[in-house]
Design a protein that fits this description.
Chorismate lyase, alpha+beta, pyruvate, globular, about 180 residues, seven-stranded antiparallel sheet
Length: about 180
């Protein structure tokens, strides 16, 4: 089994240094809701919660993401479509935000994107991308889902909502619509 949260340590970049199709660029650098895009491009969208753990951010994690060292809920989910895992997502949600917003604290199997993109004051900071090789620890998850072993692209960004910052990382799994 896995030790959650999964490490997403990688060389995150503000632009891709590997060739991407136009479709891949649209999916990776699109600033709208990934949830809405997946719902529009797949059937039977759902969220499968893998893990939710309260943790203190390390100084290096906080600095890397422009967040304060604080307690966060690390939420890990699979975004499902067409009966298959499309995206592995990991979010760092400040616990003080959870304490003040019961609808966020009780997300359950609802997508975080639906919560975030309903707020008019939401600001998405720069999107960073990374390529996850077949030797990355994420491959264990890919194998457990009976997906083909392949490099995966991911993106991450920090969302600002009032005085709170939420980190969201999204890894497009091998059967994702990103690769079609």
């Amino acid at each position: 089994m896995f030790k959650y949260p999964l490490s997403l340590e990688n060389h995150w970049l503000h632009h891709a240094i590997w060739p991407l199709t136009e479709l891949q660029q649209q999916w990776l650098f699109g600033t709208g809701s990934l949830t809405a895009k997946l719902k529009a491009n797949t059937n039977q969208f759902s969220v499968e919660v893998l893990s939710e753990k309260h943790m203190m951010l390390t100084e290096s994690d906080a600095l890397m993401c422009g967040l304060a060292v604080q307690n966060v809920l690390v939420r890990e989910v699979l975004l499902m479509g067409n009966g298959q895992a499309q995206v592995y997502a990991q979010s760092w949600i400040p616990t003080d935000l959870l304490d003040n917003d019961l609808s966020l604290a009780a997300l359950g199997d609802r997508p975080l994107g639906e919560y975030l993109f309903q707020h008019a004051d939401l600001i998405r900071n720069t999107i960073e991308v990374a390529q996850f090789s077949v030797s990355h620890c994420l491959l264990q998850l890919v194998k457990s889902l009976n997906l083909p072993a392949a490099c995966c692209y991911g993106r991450r960004s920090v969302f600002s909502l009032a005085e709170h910052k939420i980190m969201v990382c999204e890894i497009f799994l091998p059967n994702s619509v990103l690769y079609r």
